[in-house]
Recover the amino acids of this structure.
């Protein structure tokens, strides 16, 4: 029997919204947003159509005390917005590195929400990472701008499998040194 450490996940506050750990009550809004084909096709891991139970499983994994990825809701209630406007996550990698991923609900596209969330997570650096990585599909120019405007540097092309498209998609990979 091994004892895995329970990982505490902080809340990160900004003027417009808070990045807070997911909670069970987020399931409905997350399912609604993830069910949008436009959103699913810009991610690697969101199926479309969204199968029953997928959102519940996603939230349960995000709330598990032992996990390799921390997921935060972009919660706009402090500015009279919805409890979930998108999500952002950090996956623990070896050698004190992490990978940032995010999606924003289509209703909040082109509002600066993703840029603010990425910058807030960089500033907080809750995992104490020395380096953060990220990748975006090459046709997702808005997400590429979010990363470059947040200080990420392009390091190369690759490809990733998109489950909603059932195909490999060309990506751009970025990194940001934090120390």
């Amino acid at each position: 029997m091994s004892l895995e450490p329970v990982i505490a996940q902080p809340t990160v506050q900004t003027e417009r919204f808070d990045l807070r750990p997911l909670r069970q009550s987020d399931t409905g809004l997350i399912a609604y947003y993830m069910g949008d084909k436009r959103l699913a096709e810009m991610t690697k891991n969101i199926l479309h159509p969204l199968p029953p139970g997928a959102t519940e499983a996603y939230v349960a994994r995000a709330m598990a005390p032992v996990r390799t990825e921390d997921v935060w809701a972009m919660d706009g209630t402090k500015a009279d917005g919805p409890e979930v406007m998108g999500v952002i996550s950090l996956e623990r990698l070896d050698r004190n590195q992490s990978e940032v991923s995010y999606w924003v609900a289509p209703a909040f596209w082109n509002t600066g929400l993703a840029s603010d969330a990425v910058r807030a997570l960089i500033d907080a650096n809750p995992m104490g990472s020395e380096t953060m990585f990220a990748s975006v599909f090459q046709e997702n120019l808005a997400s590429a701008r979010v990363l470059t405007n947040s200080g990420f540097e392009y390091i190369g092309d690759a490809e990733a499998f998109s489950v909603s498209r059932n195909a490999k998609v060309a990506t751009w990979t970025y990194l940001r040194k934090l120390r």
Q: What stands out?
A: The chain has a mean pLDDT of 95.
